């Protein structure tokens, strides 16, 4: 069975003797008696079955009986140390670094009995190959290196995105860990079969440090798919930047850490292409992109078709909604909604916005006439009521 590890016992050859044999002669013709101190058994070392590869989700455990472990060293296939922890009583050692598929780990264990005699054992533990196993990765979004210098906005959910569908959601969720400093409430929620997000009832506090882990290597994700490897990431939340786009006034009001710092005219989606309502989270920013309405079904020759290069773009949904520079609609900005769902700004205002807003920052759209942003549309997370979000959706 995948995931089972069998232990064998390796005992040192030989025994340790204390004292010596002696013959005492007393009186004339008296006979002596021989006394022998009982042998103290050598310490025994219990190790994983080296004959059968183990699932990497099963830790390597080395244990001692009749004595205690004095040292255990382990190395990875490339010769690097495999970290582990020796229990205070010296009876067990377990690896703390995660294992990988198709790998061999060299281990040397030393144990000593009460008489000071050592038992030493060298062995190799192999993990199962992925040749005949389906695996999936748990990717983190956003990629940590993308936001390493800037940090993330207060609206950014923590995201693990699996490369294959997960059906054992409840079990997998037990292997997802998060630490938040300062502490804030939060919960995991399965947006779909591949994406699980974590957020709280409110946006993150500025300055929050977040560490997330998916300890899923070798874990049964369902339908015969195993976790390919563990993954983790660290994030820092920068200042709170929230833009409130009001379709009834056509004004975009900017707040930094809760204080209004700017207000600018804008144009939202026209009645035929209304912007989604609700909090939107910026997922990407580019100095320019080519916008082609054909990607959303309105192609050349049809009414409303467009294809042009647009500057200072910040994506707020995968449904084609951006905050961007729109010099062609400056005359309507502040008075009417004429876009195809985007937040249109003048070039100067778009530059101001682009210089300050980034991944994880929030654009809240109201009075647009559009439907609520769906939870599955990149980061529609904040549309889900907190009570519903807390339920986790793992069993749906």
Give a brief rundown of this model:
The protein has 396 residues and is mainly beta. The protein is built from three helices and 27 strands.
Quickly list its features.
3 helices; five-stranded mixed sheet; L,D-transpeptidase catalytic domain-like; 396 residues; mainly beta; cell shape; Immunoglobulin-like; disordered N terminus; 27 strands
Can you walk through the features of this model?
The chain is mostly beta strands and 396 residues long. It folds into three domains: 7-126, Immunoglobulin-like; 134-238, Immunoglobulin-like (Sandwich), CATH 2.60.40; 241-386, L,D-transpeptidase catalytic domain-like (Beta Barrel), CATH 2.40.440.10. The chain is 5% helix and 37% strand. It has helices at residues 169-173, 347-356, 386-391; strands at residues 7-11, 44-48, 61-65, 68-75, 84-86, 92-95, 104-112, 118-126, 134-136, 138-141, 158-162, 176-181, 187-190, 195-199, 209-214, 220-222, 225-227, 231-236, 241-246, 251-256, 259-265, 278-281, 284-292, 307-315, 322-325, 343-345, 362-366. A hairpin with a 2-residue loop joins β16 and β17 (225-227). It is elongated. Residues 1-31 have low confidence and may be disordered.
């Amino acid at each position: 069975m995948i995931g089972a590890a069998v232990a064998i016992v390796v005992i040192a050859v030989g025994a340790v003797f204390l004292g010596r044999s002696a013959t005492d002669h007393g009186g004339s013709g008296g006979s002596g008696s021989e006394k022998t101190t009982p042998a103290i058994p050598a310490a025994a070392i219990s190790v994983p079955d080296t004959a059968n590869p183990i699932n990497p989700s099963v830790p390597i455990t080395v244990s001692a009986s009749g004595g205690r472990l004095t040292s255990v060293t382990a190395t990875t296939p490339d010769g690097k140390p495999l970290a582990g922890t020796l229990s205070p009583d010296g009876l067990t050692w377990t690896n703390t670094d995660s294992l990988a598929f198709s790998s061999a780990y060299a281990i040397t264990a030393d144990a000593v009995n009460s008489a000071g005699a050592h038992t030493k054992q060298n062995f190799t533990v192999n993990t199962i190959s992925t040749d005949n196993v389906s695996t999936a990765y748990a990717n983190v979004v956003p990629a940590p290196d993308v936001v390493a210098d800037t940090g993330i906005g207060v609206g950014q959910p923590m995201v693990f995105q699996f490369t294959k569908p997960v059906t054992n959601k409840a079990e997998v969720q037990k292997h997802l860990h998060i630490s938040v400093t300062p502490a804030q409430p939060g919960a995991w929620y399965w947006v779909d079969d591949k994406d699980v997000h974590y957020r709280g009832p409110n946006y993150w506090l500025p300055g929050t440090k977040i560490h997330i882990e998916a300890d899923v290597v070798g874990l049964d994700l369902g339908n015969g798919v195993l976790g390919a490897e563990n993954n983790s990431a660290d994030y820092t939340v920068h200042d709170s930047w929230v833009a409130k786009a009001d379709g009834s006034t056509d004004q975009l009001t900017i707040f930094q850490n809760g204080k209004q710092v700017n207000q600018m005219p804008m144009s939202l989606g026209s009645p035929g292409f209304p912007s989604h309502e609700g909090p939107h989270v910026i997922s990407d920013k580019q100095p320019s992109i080519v916008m082609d309405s054909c990607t959303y079904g309105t192609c050349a020759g049809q009414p409303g078709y467009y294809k042009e290069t647009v500057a200072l773009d910040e994506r707020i949904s995968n449904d084609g909604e951006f905050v961007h520079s729109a010099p062609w609609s400056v005359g309507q900005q502040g008075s009417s909604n004429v876009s195809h769902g985007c937040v249109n700004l003048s070039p100067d205002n778009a530059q101001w916005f682009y210089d300050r807003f980034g991944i994880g920052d929030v654009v809240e759209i109201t009075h647009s006439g559009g439907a609520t942003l769906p939870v599955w549309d990149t980061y529609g997370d904040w549309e889900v009521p907190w009570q519903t979000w807390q339920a986790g959706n793992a069993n749906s």
